[in-house]
């Protein structure tokens, strides 16, 4: 009775309430959520494993919003989340479905300049809203670096290249394993020896601390050139079309090598200007001498000042090979003369032709090039109102993309980048020079880098797969910003495809390349130019807030599922209300998900959703 009638003064009552709240928060903070488990059954075939569901424990503080969001369909609707839909599986024939490449709607496009092999996405009414299955017998890819030389045949069951390119040491089948000996059409003796020959012809070091960190391989085959450059700290973006050499890019991705579907046809490549230290073509079948040099002009756009272009195969050293190439000396000589003329018009310097390899170098600025236009004639410079970094559905033009102005003839246009590894953490020239505006400064770059180190530490605390070195290899950052997520993982055996969405406020892809990382542009209302099961882990920071009212959340999630490997992880970071809606859809996609707190504690509205895709096959 005494307790019922006792009245506390107002200040004392407030103090009691505050103490209770503090006690609750301390309990939450001191019992962090355990990581989602990664499978430890590496020796067991994948088709015998159960999916790694997020296990609950007495210390599990995963946040449950079902009381307020989705305890029933009525509650879900009231909270703004749609009712749960069990997403059906696609037919087994769609196991390698690439919505924007090689489909029937692509065949309606013009044949000229291979326009039909570019990106052509389906109209909304023809999109497949189902889960793309893995092929029967699919297994978790071999771990890097073993995967560089081998992949499971069941994951990429194609023998066309085995039959066609086996003699050139591209690929061969050995029972249930595909072997990649490291050869190529122009380097049958192996990629390492070929890379040494390129370095000798260019007069540079292709290795750690050298002038080349980012490279572009056009028409890459199974990407052995890029695969072997990785051991020399050179990160290569390899691309090839989905053509008669079916699945070559799929093979590259199964090897754990960066690659994507692409072609040089009518549109610019989806990369910014001044991105690559070296571009390479080894008998890539790109008609460099045609269309007034349009494709060499595009290579010039994406090459850094002082960057190198390497060409091996026709017409280089035609005097020796013309019979094997089944072409006349006159035809090959004319082609080589045309390429030399285009290179001169671009103000490139021919460094050397050594055997089957020819190397040109782009100037470090355009001071003398602009002064010599009257002498050389031919190509002019593009208009100043053209955006040199634009690379999403932008037509190629027959003009030279001008380099930024310099103070003197010895200055590097746009600023000189540091050598790797200093290049990763030094303020990129685009930021130091203020080209991104006052909102992105050297100070904000430094703070961003530190913030992402903290965030990645938190991710490793809630994702066992990311924490286990070697468990994951191919990573995708869907909204990469300044590349901080990838930079924070530099000591892990992973590579990250950094995507700058077309809906992003600032175009930061040039900054990402200046840091020595790689990436591409992408509109997430469309499918990505890659095969199913490309990535082991996907990171999506504020992506769905960025794309709010632009396209359907479910369509983006279905695309994420398409490119995610079985038992792969997705880490979402967004406002809690957005994450609840995402989880509601993901629960119908054979994903196991849970929401955990921000690294700064439970009072932050921004939280983290960790999802693991179940293992299942056609």
Plain-language structure description:
- The protein contains 21 helices and 17 strands.
- The protein has a seven-stranded mixed β-sheet with strand order 6-5-4-7-8-10-9, with helices on both faces.
- The radius of gyration is 26 Å and the shape is globular.
- Among the domains are: 189-376, Rossmann fold (3-Layer(aba) Sandwich), CATH 3.40.50; 422-613, 3-Layer(aba) Sandwich (Rossmann fold), CATH 3.40.50.
- It has 618 residues and is of the alpha/beta class.
- Helix content is 28%, strand content 16%.
User: For the record, what CATH class of the domain at 422-613 applies?
Assistant: Alpha Beta
Question: How far do the termini sit from each other?
Answer: 69 Å
- What is the mean predicted local confidence, pLDDT? 89
User: Strand order across the biggest sheet?
Assistant: 6-5-4-7-8-10-9
**CATH fold group of the domain at 422-613:** Rossmann fold
Estimated share of beta-strand residues: 15-25%
Tally of alpha and pi helices? 21
Give the class from helix and strand content and strand pairing: alpha/beta
**Percentage of residues assigned to helices:** 25-40%
Low-confidence parts lasting 5 or more residues at pLDDT below 50? 1-8, 19-34, 36-60, 65-79
Keywords: Glycoprotein, Methyltransferase, Signal-anchor, Transferase, Transmembrane
EC number: 2.1.1.-
GO molecular function: methyltransferase activity
Pfam family, one: Methyltransf_29
